[in-house]
Records
---
Amino acid sequence: MSSILIVDDEEGMRKSLAILFRKEGYQVYQAGSGEDAVSLLSDKEIDLIVTDMRMDGMSGADLLDEVRRTGVKMPVIIMTAYGTIDSAVEAMKKGAFDYITKPFEYEEIVHRVRKAIQSAETDEEVGTMRAAAAEVVDNDFPMIIGRSLAMADIKAQLKKIANTDLPVLITGETGTGKNLLAKAIHLNSPRFARPFKAVNCTSVPEHLFESELFGHAKGAFTGAVMERRGLFEAAKGGTILLDEIGSLPKSVQVKLLGVLQDNVIRKVGSDEEVPIDSRVLAATNVDLLAAIKRGEFREDLYYRLHVLNIHLPPLRNHREDIFDLSEYFLSVCRSRQNKADIAGFGPEVMERLHNYDFPGNVRELYNIVCRAVALAETSVISCEDLPITAHAGSSPPAEISETRAMKEWEKKIIIESIRRHPNNLAEVCRDLGIGRTTLWRKMKKYNISFEDRN
């Protein structure tokens, strides 16, 4: 859950924004002054600041200076009335992520907040992936987790696609990792050192789409107090991802088609043509051919985007990767939640996860693991720590083949528990969250004894 700090000396504005952002699923903190905000920043984990410009004492610009002085890279959105527009422009030059003029529509500030948080998360993920990729000399896409034939095929396709400059359409169910795959394409392309910019087409209000993609000129509409670059300009020399492209309004589809054909954009409110140089990736979880038949998506745009295609399979079709994914997510969640004492999963957990169909795919697995880490009261995650959806499970597949990695891991976790509780069967069972009969059965299966702990 992302956290937002609202800074405004008007209590009514603070409270109304707090209610709005909580409804959107954010954790919200409030400060009535810049000084109070600085105190909160030293005590809380904050992902984004939304601050008024004009306040008694420390102004929004002063708060921005303080944030930048500390070296923290969290985005800051400035709220400003028309009387302080010049100050807002100056704040943008100092590094504010965005500004918004009062009065504003709630959907507009929600959009700007989503955009800022997504941009920060994308920058962090791309930086992490770039570091991981730099450590591997064989270009084997270490950010793509899994050793199944399905993932091997995806990696083989990536090796062919990444070095081209052609558009790619990434398809697959929700939660299969389309956004991650787009970042992997970018980081393994000649454009890897240039920006990667993404926009989720479902989250942009229709009247803001053109400005979001192509930018706008100063004075193009009410509140356009300065010229703004769109995503195509921001991604100059790099890559732009149009996520959930099936939700792009028809009015914008025709303009996007023109951009892809001519490699130029026109900002809203301007007749000047601006050349662009960015590779375009698109992702969708809907059947675009069916959308074409329904008249919801342009056929000519589809073929402009569908030059190359990668389809990500649902997790239920490559269950053998659940082990590797779970172990990776465990390391991530353990670090983010400061729970280094979590040693791993109990022997029954992997079987339960292996039998589950994961309608939310890899994203659901990640959320399940993070929740389990948060709930675990012992060093080993048990089935009781799993969310109810995974705990209930679903009908297991007709054939379940345990991977060698799963067997090795299960043997390792049992031996580690025995080392922690030598000659104490009850404590081992409690640690692993299983009964004595199950423990004896697994020890026999892996030829483990209390005396042999190596």
Note: The first strand starts at residue 3 and ends at 7.
---
Amino acid sequence: MAQTLFRTPLHDRHVALGARMVPFAGWEMPVQYAGVIPEHKAVRADAGVFDVSHMGEFEVEGPRASELLQATLSNDLEKIGPGEAQYTLLTNDRGGIIDDLIAYRLDEFRYLLIVNAANREVDFAWLKEREIPGSDLRDVSDEYGLLAVQGPRALERLGLPEAKQFTFAEGQIDGIECMVNRTGYTGEAGCELLVMAEDAPALWDSVLERGAGPCGLGARDTLRLEASLPLHGNDITQETDAISAGLGWCCDPDKEFSGAQELRELKARGPERKLVSFVMEEKAVPRQGMPIEGGGEVTSGTHSPMLDRGIGMGYVPVASAAPDTELAIDVRGNSRRARIVKRPIYKREE
């Protein structure tokens, strides 16, 4: 029996625009409208809007909300105040990555967590099991829509002022109340607009009328890969750790959280492998699961619209992980040359 897919508040808008809809993390989502390459280039040159309402939202409040999150999330929430956000990891007892997420400090005793759609149930169960008196965790995902407006002209098109990355504020777009979050997953400027579910279609219409082009999950993936941003389920999983993935920077070494000691020990002795970004030297498109000669594996791969060549990320032994190291990737039985590059893979020339 086929699984019934969830639909975002914008489903009818996507269908009306002729989007190609596909199953993704239990949701029926638009993978493309005009096409991945034009959508990708629109975000790099101007502004695009993505429906990311499938993402999960949790509210954590109470006098001990901070205590609960400090004991379960890798980064130090004391470093942010109300109006600020933080990239962080939810880790298991082995230091494996249950999810990567963003924590927003709404006020002294209240936080919002935005988590990956595929991990919503797992994340909620993990946190709920560890709930302490004085902390209250609620899944409020169904109450909200979330639009990511990304690109060098995104803020200009929305009529919003510049603001620091990883800050947020209440705002309005054409009279529609929303939370304006200076975050994103494309390597570009822009914001993510959290809005009540019933207001999401009107907000979508306003953003399109202001000149942002509709973009699907296909362009979101190629953009994040050019920016060397990891995808949970591909580049990071419960079986991978923050040190090997290059995410040790968001794990506070002086704080106790699930798996903290294991991560400290791993950092001290050094990981056996590292997640690297690479560019193909020969004509080939790398894909997840392809072997890298010498004991590595591709975790994400695509064709880069901006570089017009294959790019990817993967784990390789530490001895082979330095930038400019040549790799050999088994692309459908053929050995193809690639070269490790510094992150991000693509960066606009100033």
Note: Residues 36-45 form the longest helix (10 residues).
---
Amino acid sequence: MKVNSIVEGFFYNSEKTPDKTALIWGNEKISYEEVSECILKVAGFLKNQGVSEGDRVAFYGEKSPLFLYTYFATHLINAVAVPLDIKLPDERLADLISQTEPHILLHPTDISHSFKQLPFDKNLLDAEPLKSFEFPDKDLTADILFTTGTTGSSKGVKLTHHNILAGAENSNIFIGNNSSDTEIIPLPLHHAFGLRRLRTNMLLGATVVLVDGFIFPKLFFDAMENYGANGICMVPAGFSIVKKLMKRTYIDYFKKLKYIEFGSSSMENSEKKDLAEALPDTRICMHYGLTEVAANIFIEFHDDDSKLNALGKPSPNTLVKIVSDAGIEQPTKEVGEIVVKGAVQTPGYWKKPELTNDSFINGWFKTGDLGFADEEGYIFLSGRKDDVMNIGGKKVFPGEIEEIINQHILVKDSACISVKESGVITGEMIKAFVVPENKEKLDLKELMNFLREKLEPFKIPSEIIFISRIPHTSSGKKQRDKLK
């Protein structure tokens, strides 16, 4: 059946398979019929509060069944969902609320603000269920999601029902999900990746196991053993936690998985190869994407084993190309900006018309990332446009230097930036921040010699500073701007 929104797809599934488990939360199994009843109750609550079409509903982005009820209830009454990061400090939270001007704020703690605020708790389920409704038009705004931003600044990304439906459908086509799957979601639901995986499974009529993060991997294994979970979505940083806590014992459990989807940040090629070898029968996918254009490039670790250093190829029903600053498509292997076109692309940013206008070129969304395409159509990432360093007139990408630094056996992580330096012939110099595995054993001189053997002279950092941690966003992207 063709639907115009995720929420319409969900209600179709609740009628078709009412007794099937939709959500598993702790030891609680909640059927599609029970979820639909709760959605109608929250929708009734919102209607009683005067929420109408186009109004923003800002709510606490915790991982719980109540999140799903509130999210779909907001869509059902044609309002706009604004999930809020639970870790935001009050000042930042107040800023996002000011930007979106919600009709109502649902939050467990009082935020000093003029908008109507009510607790985000089970009282939302005390209202009379919504009796009549019409599913939303595909072109209505469904969500405003705030990006995590590598510079620390947040932008409200508008997504229509058509956008989020296309993102779910494209992912399903590539990964090969179906209604018989049970997926573990340890990711935050207010973030684009975790939320897409939740939507995707509800659209299919599949089952979701909500798990609170990566620090208790035994919960993953319990879900596989007790509920037949056969899929999981992960970020590389979370996977690293699982490996650290479980050593190699996680492999026997992960062999039971039909699929894994990685995303949100990069992963070392050696790690991709190791994982593919350890899980020969598991479909291991990794996406490149942004909140603004969903997962628009995919790679599969077995199918694309000779191209694991690439982002992959455009996802189904999505166009990706490399363009110059003037918007002209670049020849093969020429670096330019990665641009995306398709039903997944945002109509723009909330109340930021200039930023919206600057983010498109000839109808294509500009990702802000630089890369190139090879003869087979694989897309490769060079780096962020804002991060490119100009060293003596030559473009240098911090990622390529960091990749070499991280190859040193005593280096845990690194980040490179350029700094203007008077008296330096090149005008700018490269400064590297390195997190040692063991500060006492990592010799600075030996590290420099290591880099000289692997990098061209103009790419070698002029200064290396040992630090305890590289700042990252909540999704794992390096915040080089903070190092400046």
Note: The longest strand covers residues 364-373.
